[in-house]
Amino acid sequence: MRFNIDGKVFQQQLQAVNKVISSKNALSILDNFLFEVENGWLTITGSDQENIVTARVEVMDCEGEGAVALPAKTLLEITKEISNQPLSFNYNNTTGEVEVVFLNGHFSFMGINADEYPRGEKAEEDKVEIEVPASVILKGIEKTIYAVSLETIRPMMTGIYWDIHEGDITFVASDTHKLVRYINTDVNPGISRGFIMPAKPASILKGILGKEDQAVKVTIGTKGAKFEFGDYTLTCRFIKGNYPNYNRVIPESNPFVVTIDRAAFLNAMRRVAIFASKASNLVKLEITQGSIRLAAQDLDYGTSAEERVMCDYQGNDMTIGFNSVFTVEILNNLGGETVLVKLSDPARPGIFEPLEQAANENIVTIQMPMQVIE
């Protein structure tokens, strides 16, 4: 089997597929890419057993067809050093030797029988297909992935929940300290389904979708989903379990509303947080008509800070505490120039949302407060 390929495009596709390969694999064969050449196209596959990513590249001067598994680390190092050059691949089916020829030299190494590479599970019978604009999926993941839990004690919270309705898709993520709900009504799936997508494939999909601007074919089964677009395919398994009722967590009535410049609030929070206790990251907000006083202290080191930010506030004077790390994350990901912070009581969750929602979108973030000791 022999073929020529554009070095730059080849490197890009290898890097995209490599995102799924784990640094420590239970099966050593998964340290490799699977190469399959057929009808003038090279399909590159990577897997970690739970997720599979494939990328297609058109090849030139192709002689013969076949498949072979090749070491991922070696190929990535090779293409990094000789990028932007045309490459010629020669695979000897008998000896298993692979030769990569470039302008001023060549490399040779051994391939592995493709039959050893594990294939994905058979297609499920109970499946549905929908088409979703790449921009909708990209924004849904971007707006929620930062809120995914890192604690494996509750597996359901370690992924993004896709709540698909006939006239919208809702993306939800929560680590129990904060929750993000992003609704996009710019789609009409025509079905009702829900699944929890693990954070790893969501992050991979986010990275690959950044290069594409087209419809994504989503095939949803009972155990997993397949995303097909352009020259890429990503297959992932769902997280088992039922996602909690997120709408019940979002307060229905928080009557006291702070309207504040997002950048000013964010920058002040960052500065004051430097002096917050490293154990709690607590920043105290003293909210009055016209301004918020942010205050933090670290008794262990005898440090403290405070800063005042102007705002428009409708409600009773209130002192409430928030984890500064979570607040910074929320403000970073909300977007917009002005945000609303809706409150009801120092012991109840606060709602953060942009003053102006984008067309056909609605994003709401809640954060649990912390106890403030006077």
Shape: elongated
Question: Mean pLDDT, nearest integer?
Answer: 93
Neighbour order of strands in the largest sheet: 10-6-2-3-4-18-17-16-11
Kindly state the number of beta strands: 27
Straight-line N-to-C gap: 75 Å
Q: For the CA atoms, what is the radius of gyration?
A: 25 Å
- The chain-level structural class is alpha+beta
Q: What proportion strand?
A: 35-45%
Unreliable parts: none
**Number of helical regions:** 7
Largest sheet: 9 strands, antiparallel
Report the helical percentage: 10-25%
Task: Considering the chains and any ligands shown, give keywords for the structure.
alpha+beta; nine-stranded antiparallel β-sheet; 374 residues; 7 helices
Describe the structure in your own words.
The chain has 374 residues and is an alpha+beta fold. It has 7 helices and 27 strands. The strands form 4 sheets. It has a 9-stranded antiparallel sheet. The protein has a 9-stranded antiparallel sheet with strand order 15-12-13-14-27-26-25-19-23. Strands 5-1-7-8-9 form a 5-stranded antiparallel sheet. Strand 2 (32-38) and strand 3 form a beta hairpin.
